[in-house]
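Recap for those who missed Tuesday's class. We walked through two folding examples back to back. For each one, the amino acid string is listed first and its predicted structure tokens come directly after. Nothing is annotated here on purpose, so try labeling regions yourself before you check the end of the notes.
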Amino acid sequence: MSLELQDVEWFAGYRQIIKGVSLEVIPGEFLGLIGPNGSGKTSLMSILSGIRRPDRGRALLSRQDMHRHGRRKLAQHIGFVEQQADTTDRLTVREAVSLGRTPYLSMLSPWTSHDDDLVAQALADVDMAHMADRHWQTLSGGEKQRVHIARALAQEPKFLLLDEPTNHLDIRHQLGLLELVRTLPVTVVAALHDLNHAALFCDRIAVMNHGVLVGLGTVPEILTKTMLRDVFGVSAQVEQDNDGNCFIRYHAAFDK
């Protein structure tokens, strides 16, 4: 199954946010999406998930325009965790995660023990099984974020899309979450704020700047002193360990 953008453009009113982006996600990879604030990352993730339709160009799932698949079919293949999502409904954690099974339920396909098992596994994966009976409104921001990710995992998606998934998480849960999604049998696309997280966990990195895809490649190809200076406006040293992993040491910000 493939996920692809072809020369995609998207406007918010008269302002162009996404400018001619073409991108093909490789099955099985962890693709990181990075860029400064306002570079178009969140808008691009919304298009990749099928929530937004491009104004120009094509967003394709299995070589077919996404809108032709229908919402239920898209939800069976793409799990999307947005930056900020909330609810006023009085739900328990288990009930919130159970919503991930909705695309598979119908009069002919009622809830079964298999659905219970998938919800339980998703809760365990994000270290929230012990809070399954807690009410949503009593959770911290980081706990809510983990529940959102568990809900997406319960969808059994082929593609897991995460928009800054480590927001509100402490460092242990940041690293644990990214390690988890890297080991899942799904293709992952994650918009990441921390460039060292991108260096540590991603197979490839896509760089957005002013709505344009300005770079796409492996971690060593993308995370360079020149890119950090030109796109992020910082002085930094990029180092590699004996295993080829990249690390960024920041020095100073430039005036841009």
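Example two. Treat it independently of the first, because the proteins are unrelated.
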Amino acid sequence: MLANRKGFTLVEMIFVLAITVIISSITLAFRKPKASAQAQIALVTHAFQLARSQA
């Protein structure tokens, strides 16, 4: 009778969802924050000023 059963039970789906949430939270905790847009603009501006002064 169990061989005719198809699909997942609610407990199995909750278990998989819980594992997914735990793995996602671990990866987000170790993710490095990206530099802000203004910091990147300042770096590019500085690089252009340096190139202009050396030219």
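Answers for example two:
The CA atoms of residues 39 and 46 lie 11 Å apart.
Helices lie at 10-29, 37-54.
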